[in-house]
Design goal:
The chain is an alpha/beta fold and 280 residues long. It contains 4 helices and 10 strands.
Length: 280
């Protein structure tokens, strides 16, 4: 249910029914559509420890550009990223390819030389992972028609979310807003003054209700470039106590989809207010 009476009012959206997530559920969006999710496969031809670190680094680099990705567990119905290390020429060369959910190869990318000092969390590994993510990410996006007329939106981190919601919920909302046609910007770039960035700041509050239930309140503040609040989208429901302490799974995508329309409306209200001010 949505209720709007003005640009600064609160939109109330009830959360979808929350069901317990199986312990083995992927910690990213378990039922994400194939064009926005990716499973980074173990690196072939590389020792398990550095190969696992590289796969996780690539998954993190993809998440940093708002593509839900996971290395440890498969994402249902997602693309797969296969990386193979070739040492036949004496130097380690990593090749990678993108595989569609149906199993067909979408694209094969040029190989890159493995640095000799490719340690876990090293700058060299981060740089390689970012390069791989940059080549793959254009094939996983669904471009929408920009709806903000020069404005962009930055979804802020959500440190108050329990479990892995601090990571999965912002990623899910960014994906939902991008698919709806909004232009997004890196939230890390909003520390500097910018006149074209609308911020979306989420907050998750849990309150005990009896012994077995708790009330979850997710509040999304939409903030204009000057720091003034445009409006708020609130989502509430009661859930079994402790349900959000672990993996959020597909629930993150459901919550993002529920909040999307309210946020779009507030952004549009702000855009219209700018247009009206320019005409006067």
């Amino acid at each position: 249910m949505l209720m709007f009476t003005g640009a600064c009012d609160t939109a109330v959206i009830y959360l979808p029914e929350m069901r317990p997530t199986p312990e083995k559920q992927p910690s990213m969006l378990g039922e994400i559509t194939a064009n926005t999710g990716i499973h980074v496969l173990p690196v072939e031809g590389m020792a398990a420890e550095p190969g696992g670190a590289l796969a996780e680094a690539v998954a993190e680099a993809l998440r940093n550009v708002d593509i839900p990705a996971h290395a440890a567990q498969a994402l249902y119905g997602a693309h797969r990223l296969r990386m193979v290390v070739d040492t036949s020429a004496g130097q380690g060369i990593v090749h990678w390819s993108l595989i569609a959910p149906a199993g067909n190869v979408v694209s094969v990318f040029d190989g890159a030389q493995l640095p000799a000092d490719l340690g876990a969390n090293s700058p060299q590994m981060t740089q390689l992972a970012q390069m791989i993510a940059e080549t793959v990410s254009p094939h996983l996006r669904t471009p929408g028609a920009p709806r903000t007329f020069g404005l962009s939106v930055a979804v802020q981190p959500i440190p108050t979310a329990p479990g892995d919601g601090a990571q999965t919920l912002p990623v899910a909302l960014r994906a939902a807003l991008r698919d709806a046609g909004l232009k997004l910007t890196d939230p890390r770039m909003t520390d500097r003054a910018r006149s074209d960035v609308i911020k979306v700041a989420g907050k998750v509050t849990l309150t005990s209700v009896g012994l077995a239930q708790e009330d979850v309140w997710i509040s999304w503040r939409v903030i204009d470039p000057d720091g003034a609040e445009i409006g708020v989208v609130d989502q509430r429901n009661q859930i079994p106590k402790g349900q959000l302490d672990g993996n959020w799974g597909p629930l993150a995508a459901l919550i993002a989809d529920g909040a999307k329309e309210g946020i779009l409306q507030l952004v549009e209200d702000y855009r219209q207010s700018l247009a009206e001010a320019a005409e006067n």
